[in-house]
Amino acid sequence: MNTGKRINTSVATWAQSIVDALFQLTHNGFALLGLAVVFAGLMLAAKPEIRQLGELHLMGWLQQRQDSLSGLVSGKATDHVTAANPQDLPKQQAALAFWLARKYNVAPEPLSALVAEAFETGPRSKLDPTLILAVVAVESGFNPFAQSPVGAQGLMQVMTQVHGEKYARFGGKLAAFDPVSNMRVGIKVLQDCIARAGSVEAGLKFYVGAANLEDDGGYTAKVLAEHIRLQAVAAGRLVPAAATASTLSSSPSKA
Questions:
Q1: Do the beta carbons of residue 189 and residue 200 sit within 8 Å?
Q2: What is the pLDDT of residues 57-68, one digit of tens each?
Q3: Is the CB of residue 205 less than 8 Å from the CB of residue 211?
Q4: What angle do CA 144, 150, 156 make, to 5 degrees?
Q5: 118 touches 155 (CB < 8 A)
Q6: Where are the domains of the chain?
Q7: Reported confidence tier of residue 241, pLDDT bands at 50, 70, 90
Q8: Which listed CATH number (3.40.50.970, 1.10.472.10, 1.10.530.10, 1.10.1040.10) goes with 77-250?
């Protein structure tokens, strides 16, 4: 009996080594077509251990490739932190967390996690983290359970019925009310809008659904004004919650 177990273990180890080697080759050099050919060979192999391991590796590889192409960071709502100690954040991020917490009457701990998320995901999406936070501020006031009359939901008021497929990797449409998942999807939507429109200002009109309208109800101006305030806070300046752009441009920096 022990001999049989040792043989099975050896076969499994051998199969794992073969599959790992093949997928390393595909990762380094094969195109998707080449990967399909390799996988087809595995499916025809006599050893079921190789076939099973090949299937598992292929699904993982394809998921990683899809995440890379889509620009979304996958994971279930339970996979990420929803609160953090602001004292543990870099000075710039901590300043933003405390300022936003005071202005929007939100606990600084969950807000710190959102600030950290914006600074982690923003650069990957080529978006200024303070612009992301400005959109959240104007859209929901940092209320993760906000919902508009037309069905926009969560922190960044994403139209869940329109972008529902983007929540699939986070566990489904109910993830719209998970703060971090909503932010990741909202960042992707904002990124697409700006890329499509060609500028931040025009992209914001796309984001709010006013691309074909002359007037966006002041939405773009509100976001850009909050963006300027947040940039000033991040730079270490003392910023009143209602400070205007002209006031900030003429006020001295914090010592």
A1: no
A2: 555 544 444 444
A3: yes
A4: 30
A5: no
A6: 2-70, 77-250
A7: confident
A8: 1.10.530.10
